[in-house]
Amino acid sequence: MPVRVEETTSSSSSSSSASSQLSGHTSPPVCTLLTVGQAFSGTQNVSSLQKDEAWRVNVRIQGCDLDHGYLCGTMEALNVPMADTPVVTFWEGEIVDGKNYTFYTGKWEALSEDDIRHWTKFPSFQPFLEQVKVDGGKSLDLINYPYIFMRWKEQYFVNVGTDCGLTIAGFYYVCFSCTDGSINGFYYDPNSSPFQKLELKSTNEGRSGFSFSFYELQ
Amino acid sequence: MPTANTIFPIHGPVDLLTRLDSPDPETKLKALREIKNQIIGNRTKKLSFLKLGAVPAVASILSSYATQSDSQLVDADVSTSSIIVQSAAVLGSFACGFDAGVRAVLDAGVFPHLIRLLSNLDEKVVDASARSLRMIYQSRLAPKYEFVQEKNMEFLISLINSECENVTGLGASIITHSCQTSTEQRALCDAGILKKLISLLEGSLSQKNATLESLAAVFKKNPEVISKFVGLENERAVESSLSQRDSSLESPGTVIKNNTESVFKFVGPESGSALSSIIELTKDRYARTRLLACMCLVVIRNASPNYLQDMGIKAKLVYLLLELLDDPGQVGDEASFVFSSLVAGKKDLQQLAFENNAINKFCNQLQKSQLHPKRLQGVLLALADLCSKLESCRLTFLSLKVLNQVIDALTHDCADVRTSACICLRSVTRSIKNLCAGYFMNEMLVIPIIRLLDDPSVSVQVAALGVISNIVVDFTTRKSTFIQCGGVKQLVQLTKSMHSTVRFNALWALKNMMFLADDRCKEGIFLELTGSLLASLISDPEPCVQEQALALVRNLVDGCIKSIEYVFAEDGTLLDAVGRQLHNVSDEVGIQGMYLLGNVASGNELHKEAVLQQLLAQADNGAQSFVIKFLQSSDSRLRTAAVWVIVNLTFPSCPGAFGRLVQLKNAGIISQIRNMVNDSCLDVKLRVRTVITQSMTFGDGLT
């Protein structure tokens, strides 16, 4: 979800190399609630010192390639004060699987201390803290862990121009619960308010149960 | 500088054919020579002589003089030999690179005479016949030579062992043309042909080239033969390698002889072995030899990945093939195809090629005007393989602005080019990032692609369906573009094709189109498809078609809750077809079927009850319910899909949930679920827990 451009914001989004695909790793974690077509809704807290504020957010998973630790989708911010319509952005995600990606970001102006500061905000990360300090989590077996850690980086605005007064320079540290499909995240951008919290729940779009659609590229 | 030929007048084709009939051998000979000179390398001339019946006329001369030569106990006289040599040369020229010529030569029945002439006493006759036969064997129209038969193998070996260059070349060409099965590859290997072929790699240019091609045919997809070949020593190479390395070692040759492992350890896996002879030829001064050596190495690597693993060799192959692409002729045309088979399906090589600017090189070729169809086809296929896995390649391709050239190729006269253009687009449109941006859903691409659905070639149709399957996964609101261009109507027509591949791919495209489609789009597709057609596709004889049909309906009933009603249309024929089909299906089909039922079961009470009845219907007949079978499957994806159906049927706060839970319990389904609390798959385990938690809300529902 985009946030307001603050005066000190200067950098634009850098391209992630989601497809720097390595081979020969073990199977990544699989969760049906984190597959293409799945929708989530909730809020992002964008409070500042001056004002408490939260924007409603909808997320939809549009692409998923677990072998390469890749995920992508759209994020829609609904009640953005300076926008007439909901603002939709396209994001790409890196799944921390110890093979394609570790807990250390290594880009987007995030130092390892920033990584640790954000990951430790998730209680489910605690068991990994010591090992992550050693090797970023490379040696961890995350396949049977009921939480999936990710980084989501917005890449472009889908329905508004870049001059909309919003920025997507930062990225999210994300923790997904395989049990109920809930998502917690923290937005990180050195030039924005720290620890903006993202809270999403899996939506069933008016149904009494869970529905799954799917596509395959040829 | 060319000058006017005032001494020897050039005769017209009709005149020359008349002269062929002359009883005077000298006139006949001159006419043959002149025809040969006129048609060499000139397709138009070949065609005009062909139309006038020149081939049967020359074939008749060769046959009669060959018979005459057979009856002579000593060497035939000079004019007989010369006429045979010239007529064989004329026939060879007609066959050279010209399928119509090959067909005419074969139809004229001269082939057995040419074979017989290989045993002629006159070396020139043998040479000319061999040369002519080689031309014929370069065409796919040439008859297959059944060398597995003992006598034929002896004959083939005699050709390979010949002192005459064209005869050994003919032997190699016969192998290239006729060695197609692993039995034939093994037979050649057992007959000791490999050793002889290795020695021919040191022969003349034409021997080297013919041998490299034949080796590729013998190696193709046959690791056993390759292993034997690599084990063979090229003695000269070993000796030279050894002398260079350490002359002070005590008779290393003795240790190494017949011990491949030692050779590998001593001089590395490639040097000194037979393989080194081929590697060496990648440095040959002739482009064609370099290309064929590369082709041989690629065939070896594809069949036996253990060989040629060294990064240096891989990089060298990439570099060489990209360099050969610059050759303006046939070598350049063929280089793309060899490159494709080098990188196809191999991400490491695609990455290496990407780093060596391969995308730019192939895209540069596309920007040239009037490419030969073969080259265009090869370039498109190479780009398809390069962009098949790596997003970085796709993004570079798109940045080079050659998409229009590929789209132009969709309307090319040659079906192979149209197919290749589709395959290239299929790879490029795998870019999720660009799909999400709706980059590919525009009329410039959609209109020509939809037109290809009417193509007379099934291969083109299938390739076009591949592109459509990708571009209709459009997350913007542009799916309507495809519908407005008549795409859905065409796809639905193709689901009725007699070719199961076409039905399968058309359904795949419709399934992707249905993914997250809005209500209007869904309605449009369903009206066109109809419930009865979908029901028949779910019961298609081909499992892959069933799977796609079920997946399509799965997507149809997702989204807005009212879309579930589609499966109840026409008296519920669609849902009944699903239930009927699921009692005996593969895992893949079962997965789609269970997600379909799960999606229906996420609806209202009526929807849930209808699904429950489908699950229990089998149990009523005394047979085990398919859902129990699926819950016990070894495929965790199928177990997951099956548990989701139960999660939805027992979803809390639904009035009928308890009643359904009881029925599921009575059918033994709940006890099966309870057995799965420690399932090896986390996803299954978590969904099983959800079912148990939900059932707890009804107190003793599970006990």
Automatic annotation (TrEMBL), chain A:
InterPro entries in alphabetical order: GID4/10-like (IPR018618)
GO BP: any one term: proteasome-mediated ubiquitin-dependent protein catabolic process
Annotated transmembrane regions: none
Compositionally biased region (Low complexity): 10-20
UniProt GO cellular component terms: GID complex; vacuole
Residue ranges, annotated region (Disordered): 1-24
Superkingdom, natural source: Eukaryota
Family of this protein: Belongs to the GID4/VID24 family.
Protein name from the UniProt record: Glucose-induced degradation protein 4 homolog
Species assigned in the record: Salix viminalis (Common osier)
UniProtKB/TrEMBL annotation, chain B:
Pfam families for the chain: Arm (PF00514)
Record's subcellular location: Cytoplasm; Nucleus
Database matches in SUPFAM superfamilies: ARM repeat
Major subcellular site: cytoplasm
Keyword Repeat: yes
GO biological process, any: proteasome-mediated ubiquitin-dependent protein catabolic process
InterPro entries: ARM-like (IPR011989), ARM-type_fold (IPR016024), Armadillo (IPR000225), ARMC8/Vid28 (IPR038739)
Keyword Plastid: no
Domain of life (superkingdom): Eukaryota
Keywords, comma-separated and alphabetical: Cytoplasm, Nucleus, Repeat
GO CC annotation terms, alphabetical: cytoplasm; GID complex; nucleus
Name of protein: ARMADILLO REPEAT-CONTAINING PROTEIN 8
Organism annotation: Salix viminalis (Common osier)
Phylogenetic lineage: Eukaryota, Viridiplantae, Streptophyta, Embryophyta, Tracheophyta
